[in-house]
Every structure is written in structure tokens, then in C-alpha cells.
Amino acid sequence: MKILKNIRIFVILILSAILIVSCQNRKSLITIEGDIAGVKDDKLVLAVVTNDGLDILDSVTLKNGHFRFELKADNDAAKARAASPMMYQIMLSPYNTLTTIAMGGDHIIIKTDAENLVDDYTVSGGEEAVLMGQLDSALNSFVQPVDALYRTYRNNIEEDSVRAKIEKQYIQLLDHHKQYLVNFIQEHPDRLASYVAFYQGYNRRSFFSEQEDKALLRKITQTLKKRYPENPYVQNMQRRLEMLDLMEQERNIQHDTH
Fold this sequence. Notes:
Elements: H1 2-28, E1 30-37, E2 43-50, E3 53-61, E4 66-71, H2 76-82, E5 86-93, E6 96-102, E7 107-113, E8 122-124, H3 127-155, H4 160-187, H5 193-199, E9 201-202, E10 205-206, H6 214-227, H7 232-256
Parallel strand pairs: 1-7
Antiparallel strand pairs: 1-4, 2-3, 2-5, 5-6, 7-8, 9-10
């Protein structure tokens, strides 16, 4: 009986170990799936956004618009990515992309349209991904009226009064969206999406300046560093701040010597 009891204890320990490993594996697994309307068997590419560009991770053939990517933490690089939020980009082409945020344990579900992946999509399954979706939606709400103003501007290029009115409306839209981003960052200071909010831009124009808005960038960096000290984006932000501080010191020295 004692031998049987010991065997049962041994089996329970083995099963418990298997269960723990299984839970850990599920936690480190990132799943990004969804449906893209307007396509059937096109190829979809998944890449991780790095500080140096994009690293292609996988590609799949859409099946009636459906796709599914599973990222396992089966090597050191993958484990590091799963340990904190990272930006992932899905691409139908280099000019038709959508970026989301995920970390180990997330199961992201995206529904969008093939004509423009980032326009009016829905996302669920991860807090950072949902916040990223909110930023994209807000940017789209800014871009639509701005594009309409630009068309009116071109059609009335000779009319000074019309141009002045359009420029005033544009400034109002710009200020409104920038205030939205400030509020977003203040509400989510410890989320990676705030990093995206700070660097969001449109038509080669950023809504924030690293120099003029350095205090806000520093606040984001300090808050995120406490939560994700090993995150490559956060580390890059820290280096950028140090460089900005050094440049400011050099400018002050030059100013004092003149």
C-alpha cells in the first residue's frame, strides 16, 4: 500500500509539473488572428517592429479572408518579445498595413477590410491592442476632415478669404487631436500605446516634438521603465532622452560663451 501511495504521489507531481509547463507555454504564446473582408487567398505577412525597422516573423495564405498567426516563445529572441508588449505589423503589401500591440498570453482578434487595413478596424483580446485601435480610430477621425479641407483648399487656391478660413479650421482640428493625445497619455502613462501616441503623426508631420515636449516624453519613459525595464522601445526612449539632454547642455554652453 505504501508503494502504491508513493506511486500516486509521484504521478500527481508529474501531472502538476506538466500542467505548470503547459500553462507557461500558453502564457508565452501570442495569437493574432482575424478576418479581412474583400480578399480570399491573398498572402498576409507578420512582422515585429524593432527600433531599426521590421523583422519578418511569418506569412500565411488567407482562407476566405481569415488568418491566424501563432508566436511561440521557443527561442531567446521570442521569449524576450513575449516578456513585454511589442508592436506587430500585418501587411497585405508594403503600403497596406496595420500595427497592433501584443505580449505573451494575448489572443488578438482583428476584423478589417482589404482596401485599407488600418481604416475602421475592430480589435479585441488585449488591452494594449485595444488602446492602439483607439489611437488609430482617433487619427482617422482627424484625417478625414483634414483631407476634405485640403481638397477645398486646392480648389480655392486663389481665394485668400477661403484659404484663411480653411487654415483656421485646420489649426482647430490639429489642436483638438493633440489635446486628445495628451489626455490619452495622461490616462495610460504605463501603457506602451502612450509611446505610440507621442510619436503619432500624419503626412510627415508629428503632433509632438521631442525637444518642445521633452517633459512629456520623459514622463512616459520613466513610467514605462518601471514596468518594462527590458523593453527595447523603452530602452531606446531612454537613450533618446539622454541624447536630447546632452544636446541641450551643449546649446547652453555655446549660448553662455557668446
